Amino acid sequence: MIEPDHSYAVEARGISKYFGGVAALDGVDFKVHWGEVHALLGENGAGKTTLSNILAGIYRADSGEIAVDGLTHEVRTPAQAIEAGIGMVHQHFKLVETMTVAENVHLGWPDTPTLVSQRVLVDRTNHLMEEIGLHVDPTAKVWQLSVGEQQRVEILRVLARGAQILILDEPTAVLTSHEARDLFKVMRDLVSGGRTVIFISHKLNEVLEVSDQITVLRDGVHEVTRSAEGATPRELARLMTGEERTLEVEHREITGETVLQLEGVTASNDRGVVALSSVDLVARSGEILGIAGVSGNGQTELAEVISAMRRVDGGTITVDGEDVANGLVRKVTDLGVGHIPEDRIGVGIVGSASVKDNAVLRHYWTEGLSSGVTLFRQAVVDFATRLVEVARVQTRSITATAGQMSGGNQQRLVARREALLATRVLIAVHPTRGLDVLAAQEVQTAVIGQRDRGAAVLFISDDLDEVLLMSDRIAVMYEGRIMGIFDRVDADREAIGLMMGGHTLEEAMAK
Amino acid sequence: MTFALIENGFLSLISSAIPASTVVVLAALGCLVGERVGVLNLGQEGLIGIGGVYAVIAVVTWGVGSPWVALAIGMAAAGIAGLMFAVAVVVFRASQVLVGLALALGGIGLSNQLGTNRNGVQVRTQFSEFSLGGSLVDGGVREALFAHDPMVYVAYVLLPLTLWFILFRTRHGMNMRAVGENPAAADAVGVSVTWSRIGYSVLGAAISGAGGAYMVLSFTPTWSPDIARGRGWVALAVVIFAGWRPVRAVFGALLYGTMFSLGLTAQARGWGFLFNATDLAFFLSMLPFLVTLAAILLPAGAAKIGKRVRSTAAPAALAIPYSREER
Ligand SMILES: Nc1ncnc2c1ncn2[C@@H]1O[C@H](COP(=O)(O)OP(=O)(O)O)[C@@H](O)[C@H]1O
Ligand SMILES: [Mg+2]
What we know:
Chain A has helices at 48-55, 78-83, 101-106, 118-132, 147-160, 177-192, 204-210, 233-241, 299-306, 329-334, 344-348, 355-359, 377-390, 407-421, 437-452, 464-470, 493-500, 505-510, and strands spanning 8-19, 22-33, 37-41, 63-68, 71-73, 86-89, 165-168, 196-201, 213-218, 221-227, 258-268, 274-284, 288-292, 314-319, 322-323, 337-340, 425-429, 456-460, 473-478, 481-487. By secondary structure, chain A is of the alpha/beta class. In chain A, 47% of the residues are buried. Chain B has one domain (2-126, 133-326): ABC transporter involved in vitamin B12 uptake, BtuC, CATH 1.10.3470.
């Protein structure tokens, strides 16, 4: 008999997985040593989650085999994965929101006593937290916790079950940078105790900061596994995207006429608190007006009042001279206003409807697509096929549901669809948030293309670098007010930063 | 004097409401068991019919001499119907609403068909009275509360307490509730969603079937077509009304039974206030459904006007099929 080779914690060989005939993973080899943080890096849709789900027994591989600590294991169900010592913290947490932390920790666990009472569970949970060194109020209901705390519950739960191999799927996507630092410390502690952490991310800096080894996946294919030492972001980015590119944005002098005009616009947020106070803005044809500011300073509401999704309490909003404030969304749309919303899943698409239906969601009443009563099926199919092609949406078919696509593909679809509508005004709210480099660039390209076709673009983002890259003019928002407006050439990064923090234009310039 | 009359009236109402409500209690607990793991079975009318008709067949045709055996046969028949339902909705992920409606209609039809030759036949194998309390409590109260057949105590006390204990005091119950709230979460920690859903659909259907069997073995005790007469629908509403809690479901069901009895009593005694006797009887038999509507609308209405109502939300994954590889 051959001695098992204990040097690898996980050894996956030739893993393939197909969804509806499309390969999500194609013969991937993935080897992870004991006692290391091993980053799994790749763009959205590269197959990172699919590979981890296979290791965690959620998905079944169509081919390939998995060895844990040198022994070939059947990992066909989550229970078998747990038994083999593999624990996964999913990108979308798998917690029961209406139950307490203590109950969630004990769910489905054979060590849980047969008879349970809240007291017993809380005692046991306190004990575990002490032992493992992660703390959350065990009596709190999960829905009351912050995402960072929920993540801790998940980690606690898998560690309590004796997981030796911990898979974290994009754990930092939902964390503040401070919380991310804390998490990195936990990860380092775990590996110094001999465990293995598989860390999934598409953020290069984080990966370089915390990992020992890095594996890059691209389009379901294993690209490279190498030590983090000496790796550069540039090289990794090239491996991830397969090409090296940076976006060049051309800025010309703006000569176009005024398209969008806001005067003294006042509005409240969902809680009834003033979100916009007396906002004056003008956007001209052929320009990108960037809105810089920390999230939550009225940007969302600004986009919503213009697209008629929110009522204004005062002031006027005109598009080509037509008053649109408190009007109908349909009317604003017909005037040529497109809106890439902040909440793409809640507002931008209908997850349970097909890609095709989502493609025509904002166009179906237009000429050529319907008679006014019935849809022209072939025309709809053609329209959707073209849109999907132009937007480079990767989907197995236009009849698949939109919710099944990755976030990047959903956003590609929404961005192109809205750009198509936006002959006069395009409002883009955090349009590249959470996207990988390639998808982000495609969305940015769509926005720029619309500007070049003569639309006035409102580009809202809390990433100042992105605003500076994209905009022809930049307005700074703070607590519902416009603090100042800069031409691109006069834009001073420092001054804008100060104004985002509440300083007036004069104060900012004086410093 | 008047007081005694009212008291007597009340006690006699209770003593007839308790057996009348037993069917609704059982069917409601049956629904509740399935719904707690996320399976909504709208086929309660059908399950009551199937449980009832097989209990009749057992006694009348097969000559079964023990009411318990007849009950078990009725439950098994309803359990088999529940299994077919579960396979359709859990394994093949068909719509629970559609399959449930099919079961309701199909079950009524099937039981009426099987019962054709047995309409009105006396069911001689019956549960006999099983008195509790002896001489400790006085006559009227004893009549009302402690002089029923054993199934009453099972339905009102033993079963709800057992369900409560399992759901809220055991590891197994905690896992069950997780399956109803978030099957993906339960699955990820190794709880089998498929088996819990199938298992508890079958068990729930059998309990609902016991309701039908109880009707013919004790309450009526004879077979008549459309035996459930809306009680299955009422049971579904009771579960909502009770916020998916077993003990509350019993009280909810009893309330409905009381209104049913009121209707019958009114008819029998020819009461007539506000309406003439016949109209009053119609009105009273409509009451359970009116109260159902109110019970469902009131919390929703209160939420609408901003009043916080005690959280009695449905299991979050109720009626939503689950598949591990789908996202
Ligand atoms: N459950 C699923 N059903 C259909 N397609 C899926 C499913 N899970 C993943 N995919 C597809 O597989 C590919 C890889 O996805 P995923 O593993 O989620 O990527 P990553 O985590 O790297 O962003 C994508 O094209 C995605 O659309
Ligand atoms: Mg992923």
